[in-house]
Design a protein that fits this description.
With 412 residues, the chain is α/β, with parallel strands linked by helices. It folds into two domains: 278 residues, Mur-like, catalytic domain (UDP-N-acetylmuramoyl-L-alanine:D-glutamate ligase, 3-Layer(aba) Sandwich); 124 residues, Mur ligase, C-terminal domain (Protein-Tyrosine Phosphatase, Chain A), CATH 3.90.190.
Length: 412
């Protein structure tokens, strides 16, 4: 099997139509030698900030000398970005070989799993083969029924900001969604919870930690954030971030407390390791500036609000390029962007992606029109960007990580 064949096969696997839950994945993993039982994990869930926080924790562990696996989703430009060791994506040949092997085993033992579960199995097998000291494992969707929740124990569990997203699968209230996401907490495993949450999230987290005899850790809020050099203070220590945005300081204190928790449980991690890790932790598509193009993968109201809050600090004209998946809350997303545009006299170009889930650009433009914004339309992300080549200001790309990836490809 070639690399291209492996990627094609992965994307041919059903995403949701097979049996939910992890029983088939457990069968598959057993036939693969139960790699998840031979690895140590930090499990990271939440709605927004999972990828950033997981990357921060991974960099902290690397700076402390640990060989660290990192499993995230989705990818921005190449699939290999999802499976990394010490920041280096899995090689094409390694991925192709592992996919071919797991395909053979899954078919032989009638353990054909959903796409994300297959990728999870591939990542775990790769991390074990490469003798990782520890793996930072990001939840795909929800928590309780997520494929990553096949693990039996975590060195520490981390939950980032929890909001309304994937409501068709997780429920339409913060109560139900937080309960699903808290389903990754394991008995006796410490939980670090992002410090700004709705009251019901704090209550549900406290309840589950009492039930499971798990330590419950809520970080303090960061202080003295400086947007000019991305510095902040936490517990009398000054930290510098590689990633832009005040909300990243919130993710950072969550990562810091995860590291402190590990250091109390036999991991050799000190404040200097944490500082170095945070100063190196970078993730593409999160307030990423390339020339006058600002790329952000914000794809739900909570993330878009955080992005717009950062844009309030800008002094340049802003033109949005956006595309949104049909299963996201595009009504609220367009409402938020429209409100910003009216306040700052900004403009919008809508486009669409060659993805069945993507909302059509005409429908998206109509949503903006209902809110008094005459959005331009472009047949593709590249066309939208090309039409703004002479724009003297910030071109803000948001609405979808898939859109962020397409724009990034056009710029590199």
């Amino acid at each position: 099997m070639t690399y291209d064949q492996a990627i094609k096969y992965i994307h041919s696997i059903p995403k949701f139509s097979r049996v939910l839950g992890n029983n088939l994945l457990r069968v598959l993993l057993k036939k693969l030698g139960d790699p998840h039982k031979k690895l140590k994990f930090i499990h990271v869930g939440g709605t927004n900030g999972k990828g950033s926080t997981a990357t921060m924790i991974s960099e902290i562990l690397q700076s402390a000398g640990y060989k660290t696996g990192l499993f995230t989703s989705p990818y921005l430009v190449r699939f290999n970005e999802r499976i990394r060791i010490n920041g280096k994506p899995i090689g094409d040949s390694e991925l192709a070989e592992i996919v071919a092997y797991i395909k053979e085993i899954s078919e032989k033992y009638d353990a054909e799993v959903l796409e994300f579960a297959f990728i999870t199995a591939a990542a775990m097998l790769y991390f074990l083969r490469e003798n990782c000291d520890i793996v930072v494992l990001e939840v795909g969707l929800g928590g309780r029924l997520d494929a990553t929740n096949v693990i039996e124990i975590a060195e520490v569990t981390v939950l980032t900001s929890i909001g309304l997203d994937h409501c068709q699968y997780l429920g339409d209230t913060l109560d139900s969604i937080s309960r699903e996401k808290l389903g990754i907490v394991k008995r006796g495993s410490p939980l670090v919870l992002y410090p700004k949450q709705d009251d019901i999230v704090f209550k549900n987290a406290e309840d589950i930690c009492i039930k499971l005899n798990s330590e419950f850790i809520i970080p303090e809020l960061p202080a003295n954030y400086n947007e000019n050099n991305n510095t902040f203070t936490y517990k009398n220590e000054k930290y510098t971030l590689a990633m832009n945005g005040e909300f990243q300081a919130m993710n950072a204190v969550t990562a810091i407390e995860a590291a402190i928790t590990l250091s109390k449980n036999s991991y050799d991690i000190n404040t200097n390791h944490i500082k170095i890790g945070l100063s190196r932790a970078k993730i593409n598509g999160r307030l990423e500036r390339i020339g006058n193009v600002l790329i952000d993968g914000a794809h739900n109201p909570q993330a878009v609000s955080a992005l717009l809050n950062e844009l309030e600090r800008q002094r340049e004209p802003i033109h949005f390029i956006t595309a949104v998946m049909d299963d996201k809350d595009h009504n609220e997303i367009t409402a938020l962007i429209s409100q910003f545009c009216k306040k700052h006299n900004s403009e919008v170009t809508v486009t669409q992606l060659d993805i069945p889930r993507c909302l059509g650009s005409n429908k998206l433009a109509a949503e903006f029109a209902r809110r008094g914004i005459a959005a331009k339309t472009a047949e593709s992300p590249a066309a939208a960007l090309g039409a703004l080549k002479n724009f003297d200001g910030i071109i803000c790309v948001c609405g979808s990580l898939y859109l962020a990836g397409e724009i990034k490809k056009s710029l590199t």
